[in-house]
Amino acid sequence: MILDTNGLSAMADGDRAIESALLSTPRLAAPVVVLGEYRYGIRQSRGRMEYERWLAESILLMRVLTLDAITSEHYAAVRHELRLAGKPIPANDLWIAALVRQHAMPLLSRDRHFDNVAGLTRIGW
After folding, report:
1. What is the CA radius of gyration of the chain?
2. What is the pTM of this model?
3. Is residue 26's pLDDT more than 90?
4. Strand partners, 122
5. Distance (Å, whole) CA 11 – CA 50
6. Cα 36 to Cα 41: distance, rounded to the nearest angstrom
7. Angle made by CA atoms 51, 106, 125, in degrees to the nearest 5
8. Are the C-beta atoms of residues 122 and 97 closer than 8 Å to each other?
9. Which residues, 6+ apart, have CB-to-CB distance to 84 below 8 Å?
């Protein structure tokens, strides 16, 4: 399962509502885009040190998904499809959606706009 930034944040905060989703997956993946968004967010947090420590430990247990030439093909397709449908999503979420389609894994996210991306399965909580 691929984590969106709000899924990663929920994990860090110990949100029990996502436990069942996390238990159903053998391995978690975090897009590099999500890690950037999360790190940006914790730079502004009062609990910065605690969150940085949590991330350093947790990232060792996750697969980090990076962007490559194949991702760019998925990005272009997703962005084009959503533009034609009149349902654009934020730029970083386009990259996340591209990685989800590329790796054919579900996405743990609260953001319902991912539901507009064909071939993407969003798991909400």
Report:
1. 14
2. 0.94
3. no
4. 107
5. 13
6. 9
7. 60
8. no
9. none
Residue 99: name the closest of 122, 120, 124 by CA: 120
CATH T-level topology, domain 2-118? Rossmann fold (3.40.50)
Token readout for 28 is 């978690």
Displacement of CA 14 from its chain's centroid (Å) = 17
Domain boundaries, the chain: 2-118
Q: 101-119, pLDDT tens digit by residue?
A: 999 999 999 999 999 999 9
* Residue 100 tokens, joined: 């989800």
Q: For residues 75 and 69, what is the distance between their CA atoms, to the nearest angstrom?
A: 10
Q: Quick one: tokens of 40?
A: 């940006």
Q: Which of 5, 39, 13 is nearest to 109 (CA)?
A: 5
Residue pair 113/93 in contact (Cβ under 8 Å)? The answer is yes
Torsion angles phi and psi, residue 29, rounded to 5 = -130, 145
31-71 pLDDT, tens digit per residue, is 999 999 999 999 999 999 999 999 999 999 999 999 999 99
